[in-house]
Structure formats: structure tokens, C-alpha cells
Amino acid sequence: MVVADISEGELVRRIVSRLGTSRAIVGPGDDAAVVAAPGGSVVVTTDTLVHGPDFRLAWTSGHDLGFKAAAVNLADIAGMGATPTCLVVALALPPSTPVSFVEQVADGFRDACAALAPACAVEGGDVTSSDTLTVAVTALGDLGGRPPLLRSGARVGDVLALAGDTGLAAAGLAILFDRFRVDGKPMPVREEELTQSESRAVSAQLAPHPPIALGVVANAAGAHALMDVSDGLVLDARRMADASGVTLDIERARLDPANDISLRGGEDHALLAAFAPTAVVPEGFRVIGTVRPRGQASVSVDGIPEEGPGGWDPYRDWDGVIG
Amino acid sequence: MVVADISEGELVRRIVSRLGTSRAIVGPGDDAAVVAAPGGSVVVTTDTLVHGPDFRLAWTSGHDLGFKAAAVNLADIAGMGATPTCLVVALALPPSTPVSFVEQVADGFRDACAALAPACAVEGGDVTSSDTLTVAVTALGDLGGRPPLLRSGARVGDVLALAGDTGLAAAGLAILFDRFRVDGKPMPVREEELTQSESRAVSAQLAPHPPIALGVVANAAGAHALMDVSDGLVLDARRMADASGVTLDIERARLDPANDISLRGGEDHALLAAFAPTAVVPEGFRVIGTVRPRGQASVSVDGIPEEGPGGWDPYRDWDGVIG
Hints:
Two copies of one chain form a homodimer. The first copy, chain A, has two domains: 7-142, CATH 3.30.1330.10; 151-170 and 208-313, PurM-like C-terminal domain (Phosphoribosyl-aminoimidazole Synthetase, Chain A, domain 2). Helix content of chain A is 29%, strand content 25%. Chain A has nine helices and 14 strands. The first copy, chain A, has helices spanning 8-16, 62-78, 99-116, 168-179, 196-206, 214-220, 233-244, 260-264, 314-317, and strands spanning 33-36, 41-50, 83-93, 122-129, 134-142, 159-163, 181-182, 185-186, 225-229, 246-250, 270-275, 286-293, 299-301, 304-305. The longest helix of chain A has 18 residues, at 99-116.
């Protein structure tokens, strides 16, 4: 059974039935949802996954797709020092999409919320027909009366701290590209050919588990600046440095692994924070460097200006293969 | 110049520069935006326009596309009795999309907010590459401490009232399908061949102006129920009737025009409200019927049960032509 075989209303009912308990004042089913905003403001972000540049169906299950689409949006809420409260999901589906695949996507959203942000659920959405499978997600969050943590808040003398992985998702992508393609075309992953650490890397790429709960922890601990590291540590650190008018110096030996993939690999959605030198860096964060007066480069590694390439650009970097 | 010629960052800068003044606590540029929610809750909805089923580029300019994508989402916020406060926009763009087209889309969003919801602006977004041009919008709104107006609130004895047009956008779509296609393929509109009223209908289809400000007016006037009429008056009235456990009786003579297109035409985004019989129906709304005890059908017209077809279903109704 494919989505063209059933009505839009029936498809929506099947999705909603799998989303778990609504956390909202008004959940799915009316013109809009109504979500509590006890802090008197709401944090909002949107991020889209498109079949082709962002995922390939040979590698990504419906469950992975929903899980990742949730995780990358939750990470942007965490990156503001807020708690995720709600997701809304727009699914654009080719008529030939199996209904069971869409149900797995819904399961992935439910399981990502349960695992990463238990106060959050999918509270609304939209289903449309399209030639290109697209998952557009908007996440809302609440600051609980605390200030938002911006990229521009890092101060000279602060310590630079990281929560979560760097380089793991990129290592997973490299395994997929190197070993599970034939003539450039993605092929299903043969789990039995992966070591345990390779399997962990592939999972980090396909269904990442960012440290969502540590965003609000950093805020409660008085962090000066915070951001989601989505495009690679050096590239995102450069954004924080430029917004703050400082140079961020990273100590390579403090990264794990202490090599280039940790500096440049994207899609792990670690949290990068700047804390006052007197602050107690909260559990889950580890110190990886210091905030210095603005020098010749935005970012340095072991004191040496870092001018290497940035991260992923979909128009420049996508090879055009759908898969 | 097409989007593949410039970086993602440069494209985002060009879009943001055209969006007008941010109304938010934190506007575009960080991991997420932060928007005031003075009422202690936030209304949230999402609606997507996909090239093919939802619009054809032969008929729709970039400005129309941005304007309509904003308007249809603002209407869902109004349909809850709330004031729109913020839009976030995910654009999935083929690499061959002209940059000037994307800039016109941004202009359309800005102009729709200015015309329909002056307290609202685009405060964040996402740009990705895709084979299918897709505009996924999420709108937020604030209830100002009032209750949300649900579909389930209509009570027996209430008057049924409507604000905005019915049938006009459908008349416009019929003109486009009948007169501006060759061999089934959409062709540019020749404005000089349209009468003034035909031109008004085509505009209502391509860049609708729903009565957004009347949502909160209905709420302040104590409406029992409210909804956005997006799929046709009978179909959406059926949804309100079923949610409320009543029958809605529409008087055909009170519709304008008093014929079938007003009952079944979609995409005008009028507001359908139920007011207590003692309430003063606010200016901008006109009485079109009454709320009756649940009878054999959800909706009747002049007392006769209405069993006609519903509205648009993208999987059933789209002819597959992109255009």
C-alpha cells in the first residue's frame, strides 16, 4: 500500500496514531496547535531533510529519517539554552511512498522525542504530494525565564567547552561512501561487515543522539555563549568567534579523536559553549580550549591560525546522486 | 545568476536583507529565533506549497509564491483566534532557480506580513537544495491571554458567520485552467484578456488576502468556534459540525455568489465562526446560517442535507503536470 492508495485524512490519522501522547494545550487536529510558553517567549527553528542531498533511502530507514529530522531540530533549540517543547512536521511525499515507510518516519519522531527531549512531541503537521521526498521540521522551545544563549556572548578569558561527539557522524558517512556504493550509487548497509565502532559511527550519521538536555544545563550554569555544532567544529567555532569578536583557540589533544575529522566533520550536533573562567563547567561538557583576544584568524588550533575549508554547502557539495 | 552560483551563506544574506524589520527578541542569524509569547502560550501551524500540486511557475511569480505561502499559514493562526507573531520558512530550491526569483519570494513574504499581519515577520529559516521547488512555512501566533477558538465549540442555536470570500479563488483557478493552458500545460497569464472581475479572481487564487486581523476580533467578541476555510465551505463546515456534534445549516441566498462555487470552492481562506445568538457579530463577519441539533448530515443547505463531494486531495486530485 502506497500513499496514493489512501486519502490524505487517512494518512494523517495513521501518522498521528503513532506519535504518542500530546504535551500541548491543543494537540493535532485543529487549524493549529497551542503549546505552553511559561517563560513568556518561544524559541523557534526550522531545518529540512531532502532526499538526495540530505539522505539516501538505500542507507536511511524511515525510522532513521524521522529520528534524524527530529534530532537536528532539537539540537538547534538546545543550542539556545532552551528545552524543546514541540515539533511540527511537513511531509512532502511522492505518491509511490509506501504507507509503512511513512509510519516508520512517525515512529522515528516519537522515539527521538522520547530519547532526547521527553517534554516534546509532534503537535502538528502537513502532508503534501511531491516528486521529492522532503521532511521539513520546525521545533519550538522554552527558556524557562532564562536568557537565550547566543553565539555572540563569548568573552576573552572564557573557557571553551564541548558536549557530545565530533567527527563520529563524518566517519560514518565516509564508511557509507567508501564501502556501500556500487558505481557511485548507494547500496544497503551490510551490518555484518561492520566492527562495533564502525557500526557506532554509521548510527551517528543516520540517527544521531545529540546531548539535547545539556543545552538548558549550560544555561543554568551561566554559560556566556552556546551553539549547535552542525557543520563542523572549526566552521561553527568561526561563527561564534566572528559573532563575539574574539578568537577561539582549540587544543587538538583535547579532542577525541585528536585529529582532523574532529575539527572538520559535521552532523554530530555537539554543543559548543563558552564559560567564565571561574564557572564550574557542568558534567557532560569537557574543556577543549580558550577564548582569546581577536587575532589574525577567527579560530586557531594550538595557537596556529586555522584557515582550512569550511563545512557542507548543498549547492557546491552534493554530487547529484539521489540513491 | 542561479542559486548554484553563490554560497548558501550569500543566498541567506540576500533573503534576510529583503525581509524587513525583525519583530523578535532574537531575529535571524543564530541557531534559532526567540519570539515574545506574552500570553504564556504559543499557537503553531505549518503548511507547505510544492511545485506541481500547489503552484505552477507559468502562473505564479516569485512574489505571488511568497505572498501565498505566508497568507495560508497566517490564516491558520487567525483561525485559532490569535495574532500572528512570526514565520519561519524552509526553502528547498533546485540549483537552477534564479537568485532573483528567490529574492521575489522573500519580497512576497515581507509584503504579505505588512498587508495582512503587521506584527509578524519572517524570523528564521532554512535553505536546501532539492529537485522540487518547495516552500514549507511555520507560523506562530499569540492569544493575548484569550482561549484558543476550536472547531469543537459550536453550540445549538449559535449563528454561523463568515468573514472573507468564498469561491473567488476557485473561480480564478478555473480561469487559469480553462484559458491559460496549451495541451494541458500551463502558459503565462495574458492580463489584457481578463476583465476586472476575472483579474480579481485570478489574484485571489495566486496571492490571496484572507481577513487575518478578524481572527482575534472574533475571539474578543466571544466567538464559540472559529476556523480557516481552506478546502471549501461545505467540507470545512463539516469538520466544524463533526467536532462540535451539531449540524450547520447554511442559507444559500446569503452567500456571494449565491451558488455552488461558494459552497465548494477552496483556497480563499475565509474565517467561519459560530457566535452565541445574543452576541453582536463583529464588523467584517456576515451571518450565513445557524447551528442546529445534530441531524442526518453534518451540513445542510437551506435545510436539505448536503452530501456532495469534499475538497482537494493532493494524491487523488493532482493531474501530475508540473508547469
